[in-house]
Amino acid sequence: EHEQYKTELYDMCGRMDTDQSGTLTLSELMTSFDEEESFRTLLELMDIRRDELAAVFKVLDKDGSGEVDYREFCEQMHQMRTRDPRTMLTFLKVSITELKEEIHALTVTSGGAAKMQSAMINEGADVCT
Predict the structure, then answer these.
(1) Which of 17, 27, 89, 105 shows the greatest Cβ crowding within 10 Å of its Cβ?
(2) What is the spatial distance between Cα 129 and Cα 122, in angstroms, rounded to a whole number?
């Protein structure tokens, strides 16, 4: 079952890879979510919503290149699918990292304190929803 799942996912990657580069970009994932029912269904089974795809991609794109190769994508998606608590912790880690980056950027700019307070309030509301 594990190998069949990975083979099907690998084939799905080929359909999602619109430029046939052998890698997937965030844009290709977003388009696939909208247009590829089997991909959308897979993500929904994993409780991954469209608005969380950027966080998923950031986790998968470990080198920050903006691309993820099929093999790595399939391996990571399988791990996320079979380890539900780990999936939640991964999203939490990415969200915390992004929040830290936003806070740092806001405090460096002029008027950062007021912007930081507003961002923290808004981020808190997003986390609770």
Answers:
(1) 17
(2) 11
H or E element that contains 24:
strand 23-24
Q: Which of 43, 54, 116 is nearest to 80 (CA)?
A: 43
What would the two tokens of residue 52 be?
């969380």
Structural tokens at position 47: 């409780």
At 50-66, the pLDDT tens digits run 988 888 888 888 888 99
Residues 31, 88: Cα–Cα separation, whole Å: 24
Question: DSSP secondary structure string, 28-81?
Answer: HHHHHHHH-HHHHHHHHHTT--GGGHHHHHHHH-TT-SS-EEHHHHHHHHHHHH
Q: Give per-residue pLDDT as tens, 74-104.
A: 887 777 666 667 666 777 788 788 888 888 8
CA 101, 102, 107, 109 torsion-angle sign? positive
Dist CA 13 CA 11 (whole Å): 5
Tokens (6 digits) for 27? 């844009």
